[in-house]
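Quick one: structure tokens for this chain, please?
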Amino acid sequence: MNYDPNNPLIVQGDRTVLVEVDNPRYAEARDAIAPFAELEKSPEHIHTYRITPLSLWNAAAAGIQAQEMAATLQKYSKFSVPSNLLADLHELVSRYGRVRLERNGTDKDNGPAGLKLICHDIPLLEELARQPKVKCYLGPKLDRTSYQVDGAYRGVLKQALVAVGYPAEDLAGYTEGAPMVVSLREQTLGGLPFQLRDYQRDSSAVFHAGGDVRGGSGVVVLPCGAGKTIVGIAAIALVGRNTLILSTGITAVKQWRREILDKTTLQSDEVKEYTGENKEIGPVTIATYQILSHRNDKNEDFPHFDIFDKRDWGLIIYDEVHLLPAPVFRITAQIQARRRLGLTATLVREDGREGDVFSLIGPKKFDVPWRDLESKGWIAEASCTEVRVALPDKVRMEYAVAELRHKHRIASENPAKEDVVGFLLNRYPDKQTLIIGQYLSQLRSLSIRFKIPLITGATPNCDREDLYHAFRAGTVTQLILSRVGNFAIDLPDASVLIQVSGSFGSRQEEAQRLGRILRPKSAGDIAHFYSVVSRDTREQDFAHHRQLFLTEQGYSYRIADGAEMGADYTSRIDGELITNVRQDYDSMEWDSEEGLVDDLI
């Protein structure tokens, strides 16, 4: 094959791929490798991707062949692709599906009588059977190519096989679950026509797979604003069985319920909420991760886990699956006989448990690049800007001598950011604007100075809903949100978001926050995302890491100087801020409702 020195890729034997950002074929090559490579670093001119076993297995599960991946690398590479990398790529991809889980007979009354692990590569099967992480979950040997497996070990065995490098294809099927009469409406309750978008229809169909054992478990990855809730609703209609939906908070629960009643034939008494406020079980039940993870003492068991056994569920939907807390992973390992659908904007997990999502929820089944949906008008075009603000002199000295664990918060609460916020509010006086941040003292100061309503985890749900409704109606045009604004709020007209602080280097949070303003605008307006960071601090370093996922999706950040936006707080600063930071740091003045997220990141 003839290689073109004008191509943008340099493929290296250690499975890293360097991509020239300034190359005319950059965007084309980036989109081509994104399904099977992960972005690691994104400095100005050269981006670094890495090909990992998990990225390859997710691609293989989505139907991409090793030959296609190799051809993509060869097509865009400047130089000859190292032969060892091509060999590794084919070897790793071939591992997916070499081991299978299937039913081992059927009990007419109780469904699967058991499972069996099958591998026709007999030496490999014997090797796996001797792996300490695997052998404890295997029962008697059935024949030369299979071992008996207790159904209770289905999840943990899949985790163990991923850990040793041979992910199992799970073809053991699922319990049917209690039937439920449900279909999609052609017209919403409000009288508007309703039909699935092509990618919503395709993603739900790929998940369901016509009811075949190759469907029924997996993750659908779509950007915020693209209608992941609608994908879940379409899956409910396809499966037609009792469904348990797990989501991030009460606001998300209420949004799910509104959408289900608005777009399906299910009636109000068939869709129940199971939260800290209301614990009811119905054919469709929507619960929060918080209530499932709640226990009075860390030595006790989780009292609300019995919800998984209170009804014969045919489908479990994990909303924002990238935030799935560790206790719910544990129970998910025990309910592998239920169909499982994960919905997320990003498979990135800051705790590194992407492998557990793969093995316990299922592999990535459907993914659409954000820019593709933007080009078709399904999500808004977005402009991203990082505004760098200097620390005032007194704060800069305090930052310089502070302990490492204090530095991020001192930089995050840089008071000079307030002037930038004021400048941006004046720039977009007629736009629906959200201000979002990490620290309550900072957000309260902004709320008081600019007379903008503040919503935190302590805000009563009725007050939140009133403010969200006022924002949607246009009677309130500016809101300040704590991290409750990261997830599942339906504010379709928001077109400007100002991020004043965040959770360290969280890529998932950056993606979620941009997603808050990606709903298509009625006038076709561009969405504006501003991230205000303190220059020459750890916050700036974290900001760079936060932007990785969105860079991979095709977004770039323009760098702006806060000094040009009137950010000059020097004459108004005293020592009070630093005192408050040091006093508040250990208590981490974050919302109690958001403790779940704190544990994850």
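The chain has four domains: 9-95, 99-170, 198-368, 376-600.
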